Amino acid sequence: MKILDRYILITFLRTFFSVFIIFMFIFALQGIWLYIAELAGKDLDIIVTAKFIMYYMPKLIPLVVPLTVLLASIMVFGNFAENYEFAAMKSTGISLQRAMRSLSVFIVILGISCFFFANNVIPWGEYNFYNLRRNIAKVKPALAIAEGQFNEIGDINIKVDKKTGDRGQFLKGVIIHDKNTARVGNYKVIVSEKGELKSSPDSNVLQLELINGNYYEEVIDKDTRKNINKPHVRSYFDSYTINVDLEILNSEDLDEKNHKGRHTMQNIDQLTYTIDSLEKRREDDYKNLSNTLYNRTTYAALNLNIDPKTNDTIYTGEVLDLFNTKRKLQVVNLAINSANSTRQILDSNKKNFENKQSHFNKHVIALHKKFVLAIACIILFFVGAPLGALIRKGGVGLPMVIAIILFLTYHFFGIFAENSAEKGSFSPIIGSWLSTAVMLPLSIYLTTRATNDKGVFQFDVILVPLKRLFTPKNKIQLSESDTKSYNYYKKYSVQELVKIIKEQEEFDLDKKPKEIALHNLLNRKISLESLKEEGLDIPNKLIKAKSLLKDYKDYSKTSLVSFSIGAILLVLHFVFKNNKLPEIAEASLSLSIIALVFFIIYIIVDAIVYSKFYKTIELKNKATNPLILILTLPFYPLKFIVLRNKIGQDFYQSCLQNIK
Q1: pLDDT on residue 75
Q2: How many whole angstroms separate alpha carbon 604 and alpha carbon 599?
Q3: What pLDDT is stored for residue 473 in this prediction?
Q4: Is pLDDT of 251 > 50?
Q5: Burial level of 511, CB count in 10 A (0-12/13-18/19+)?
Q6: Residue 410, number of CB atoms within 10 A of its CB
């Protein structure tokens, strides 16, 4: 290895491992903070706590390593550029790609290592972490009660809406399913508004006191005929205490590992096998459903009970006309019953199939994410290294900000794509690779620009057209000499400028001084009526056109305000609707409709005034086209800016041509 390669590699490794340790420490603390409320006060020894942290850390690698690669590459290459080390390299003929060669080899090795880590270590960590948490929950029942889901404690399944108190002992919105060893099913349900967990350190009994609730139990008799009436017991209570024997729970082994079927706990071979099994099972489910639907139609038995009036096999009339009235009723009722039965079966299976599809998608995503981690490290390096060379800033200031912004973009794309893919919005394969695919063009773009010593972005390509669009075009283009004349004419009074215009017109001299003088007068915001009193020949059509121009600007501003209010209220309608505020959502929708109605009214008035204006200045070919008017309604703010500049410029040019 050459001295330069060794220097660059050692510098990068020193920064890489420093940043990695810092980020791992931060993310580990954040993970501990998530579980601190559940772990604090549970009398867990140091070994169990250390195992908890050790099993949790592998799942942080997909977050920490890509972010570390991105930040370290920006910092290292930013330092090289800031300290002119790149300039020294280039002066000796060493390009950016040559400087990145040793690091590229390291990043490829890192990516391969991350793949094997994701395939072996992360599933191991997930497997041990999940089982350790489950075993801790069995030993410490208060830990087992998580908000918003059913939790198993002894012989009961309990769900609470909210936990409060320093130990999470106060419960709100309690639902309990009491299991019975003699029969399978939820036959006993207890619902209460509040509850409290009470236990003594010296006692093996956990007391759960429920307050203000209801008790319901189905009574199942051995004689099935007595169960037709569905007998049950229902009662109300002010206070009800349930005792849970913790003797069996406290004998649980924290190192027991019984649960290993989750997709995050499997390697590639296991995931491939599971995906194949799920696909086969899905095909069987679809086949069984199709057979069920076919059998429910009783299609095979249709011709056994119904005899048509004719045996003609070629018949083009109404099918029901082949039967008498009684048979028609039978056929119609049979069709209705079959349709209702089919709909009920489809409705009952829809949610089941959606859950199975989501379960399948999670396994596919988990499989591809093992490859994504390796590729992401390589791509993010080719984003960070050239970006650091371009911004020419090292340290932890600007590089940290840029790295976090880029990584958040990458991470949020990944989360959005994976969540959408799990629900079946698009292919889980696309969901796994989308965030990495977004970064790939950026890496190619930045590497190309850094190689050619160009800036990150050439903003002139965007800014120049925007300046042309938004800058008012009501001024004539003047040469350098004409600009000097224009500035010189600023010293003249109105009467002197009017005299220049009339003399140029009367003696048919050069028109340029007249245009510059008139240009000077119009920019002084003097009304056309005042200029007419000063002796200029101003046609009445220009005075009328200016009045129409003012009306158009007033109406168009009102249209823009109405459009903006309507659009904002419409967006707020969906926001309130998604946040379950139906009353406010409906009010926003109503106000939005009113605002948009006003917008439509004023946009029609705009179009009429706009057409009158161009007819007045004798430019009828520029009048409003109704089709274009309708098509551009969704883009009215942009249209407002364009037409405002256009109509002002046309009026200005008309004044220059017609004022004498």
Answers
A1: 85
A2: 9
A3: 47
A4: no
A5: exposed
A6: 21
For the stretch 175-189, pLDDT in tens is 888 776 556 666 788
Confidence of residue 459 (pLDDT cuts 50, 70, 90): very low
Is residue 497 over pLDDT 50?
yes
Mean pLDDT of 445-453: 78
Helix %, strand %, coil % of the chain (to 5):
70, 10, 20
Q: Are 175 and 189 in contact (CB under 8 A)?
A: yes
Window from 209-218, 309-318, 564-573 with minimum mean pLDDT: 309-318
Query: Pairing between strand 183-198 and 170-180?
Result: antiparallel
SS (H, E, C) 255-280: CCCCCCCCHHHCCHHHHHHHHHHHHH
Contacts of 614 (CB under 8 A, 6+ apart): 620, 622, 623, 650
- Asked if 123 and 266 count as a contact pair (C-beta separation under 8 A), the reply is yes
Spatial neighbors of 545 by CB under 8 A, at least 6 apart, are 613, 616, 617, 651, 654
Supply φ then ψ for residue 179, to 5 degrees. Answer: -80, 150
198 forms beta bridges with 207
Q: Across-strand partners of 243?
A: 207
**8 Å CB contact between 504 and 514:** yes
Place of tokens 């793949």: 115
Instruction: Supply angle C-alpha 435, 440, 442, rounded to 5.
Output: 105
Q: In what order do the strands lie in the sheet with 183-198?
A: 151-153, 156-164, 170-180, 183-198, 205-218, 232-245
For residue 151, list its beta bridge partners. Answer: 158
CB-based contacts of 464: which residues, under 8 Å, 6+ apart?
none
CA atoms within 13 A on the CB side of 246: 21
CB 67 within 8 A of CB 407: yes
Q: Are 149 and 160 in contact (CB under 8 A)?
A: no
Pairwise CA distance, residues 53 & 67, whole Å: 21
The residue among 229 and 68 whose pLDDT is bigger is 68
590-628 pLDDT per residue, tens = 888 888 888 888 888 888 888 888 888 877 666 666 667
Q: What is the DSSP string of 96-162?
A: HHHHTHHHHHHHHHHHHHHHHIIIIIHHHHHHHHHHHHHHHHHHSHHHH--BTS-EEETTEEEEEEE
In angstroms, the CA 192 to CA 155 distance is 18
CA atoms within 13 A on the CB side of 378: 17
Instruction: Work out the percent of the chain whose per-residue pLDDT is above 90.
Output: 0
Q: Which helix (H) or strand (E) segment is 426 a member of?
A: none
Tell which residue, 377, 385, 311, has the closest CA to residue 76.
385
Q: Each residue of 514-571: pLDDT tens digit?
A: 667 776 676 666 777 777 776 777 777 878 888 888 888 888 888 888 888 888 888 8
Classify burial at 462, counting beta carbons within 10 Å of its beta carbon; exposed 0-12, middle 13-18, buried 19 or more: exposed
The stretch 399-424 carries a mean pLDDT of: 81
Residues whose CB is less than 8 angstroms from the CB of residue 59 and which lie 6 or more positions away in sequence, other chains included: 122, 125, 126, 129, 264
User: What amino acid is encoded at 389 in this protein?
Assistant: A
